[in-house]
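ARCHIVE CARD
Drawer: 12
Card no.: 0347
Subject: one protein chain, sequence and derived structure
Cross-reference: see card 0346
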Amino acid sequence: MLKRLNKIEPFVFLLVLIVNVAPVFGVKYFVTLDGGSHNNNVAIISSLLTDPSSIFSSVYSINSELVPNWSGHFLLLILSYFFKYSIAEKILISIILILMPIFFRKIIGQIAPQNILFSYFFFPFTHYGLLYLGFYNFTIGVLFLTILISFWLKNNEKRSVYFYVILWFLFFAIYFSHLFIFIVSVLFIAVHILATSNYKEEGSFKKILKRGLPILICALPFLYLTATYFLNRPAKQLADIQYLGANNVIQMIINGDAFSLDVYKEKAYSALFVLLLTFLFLLTAIQNSISVNHQINRKQKVLALLKSPGHLFLLMCLLMFILAFVMPNDDGYGGYITIRFVYLGFFFLLLFASFQKQPDIKTRLLLFSVLIFSYTNLMDIKKEGLSERNIERKKLEPAFDKISPNSVVLHFNLTGRTKWDTGHLVENIGAEKQTLVLSNYEATKGYFPVVWNCSKNIHFIAGGYTIAPGNCQKQNIKETKDIDFVLVYGDKTGCIEYDEIVNRISDGYHVVYQSSSVSLFKKE
């Protein structure tokens, strides 16, 4: 009976993989907060590489600094040559949702094959909150982190030229995905080398150096880029750096905010999943404590702790959670830092938990019942959110149809806090019709592939508005251009801001499309 189940199990995993990807193709668009901005910037990169005289070349340039955050843009760029942007985005998300669980399963198969079923507990990690915020580069970084851990654990004892070449490419892929994940990857390898070294042997320091130096050489180009990245960014004022209080971090952990997008709707199920992970952690910790206590003396106990790969993951787990309390949540350049540490803390916690003795059948049934209940409910709420964001996306389509290619679009988003997750929807038109949308937060930040080219000092005019793109100052104007379309998105009923916009563009613009939430004005 057990052999039959073992034969069937891989097919069950494949079925769950298909279910995991199903929400992506259950809707017309996979709408995320930053997705529209990513698509827009991919179209800009493509145009700058192939058509120097395009409408984008007047205000944009490719970032000359070798910054991270390239991988998502690069992959979307490749896919966009074969598919339209909305399909390319879906394919990218699907690749991530398939490969992440597969490589996590490979890690479990290497470190605790008897607990291969623990790979199913990783599925809620794939449809996590930051994915739906459109943090593709970070998510791709997590994918490459799972690949690196799997590769390292399998090959680090039998090194060859092939080993170092692959490791270099993994460092390359991780750095150009996300700087945060690159630092965590280097930490993981450093902790593993230190934790698995025999300090009782004579010349142990030399052996550590011998093991670590080639790895350091592989990582050196990207460590240099990391140092350069931070040196190129001046220190922010204290007012720009935000920390979460300890109570807020604790609530973030307990409520499972790392696994949810709508914390109010998903809180009960994400918190239940955290409770499940905590139970697995405690069970493993108790079993390992009993095992270590069988050692004869204190030195043997410490060595037993350090030698076990499980305790490597425990160290990484604790380190991630400690950093969640210590590091700022917003460093003045980017935010959502704390929740990334919390997410990776649970990532390493699950790897540690996989080292427990195989649970009995009753315990397994209980664990999987809780997992299925929390996972399916989390997925249902996320699918509902996707459907709602698709409705909003489709409201814009009639206006998009009336916008001419190679035109300049100024847009105002009046949805405010009521629809915060649709903030970059309008930017999709930049990708779909090669239009210049005069809002692009990525180009302003300086750590994405595209930056504003302020040297040309082109300013754009629509009625009473004079727009300096991005962070370009309104001075030394060399050239002015008319804005072809003004798009206002959001309920205009009783909205003073909407009335002000209409008043300022009343001379020279007329309505070409209007609905309850979308108004499009064209220059006469």
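Annotation on reverse: The chain has 19 helices and ten strands. The longest strand covers residues 408-413.
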